[in-house]
Amino acid sequence: MKKLRNYDSAPGCSMEAALHILGGKWKGVILFHLFKDGTLRFSELQRHLVSINQRLLTKQLRDLEEDGLVIRHVYPVIPPKVEYSLSD
After folding, report:
1. What pLDDT was estimated at residue 27?
2. Backbone angles phi and psi of 23, in degrees to 5
3. Nearest Cα to Cα of residue 55 among 87, 21, 19, 26
4. CA separation for the pair 14, 30 (Å, rounded)
5. pLDDT score of 60
6. Which residues of the chain have pLDDT under 70?
7. Distance from first CA to last CA of the chain, Å, rounded?
8. For residues 85 and 40, what is the distance between their CA atoms, to the nearest angstrom?
């Protein structure tokens, strides 16, 4: 299992940690689509979020994965297939 980020900077303030995790223009929208539609491929997410560029979507997904909210599953096929889903 990956090491998750440490949010112990403000002990007892879980709101600060939650806002840090969900802070970002697209993170809430990404989580909404994963919750509504289930597992989605990268290109499907990109189609749902029309005005986001590929680089920013990748960064937001990596942040969510590092925070433990999203699971990234890579299939060893050509062309590459990557699926994202919500964690438990």
Report:
1. 92
2. -65, 135
3. 26
4. 22
5. 93
6. 1-12
7. 14
8. 7
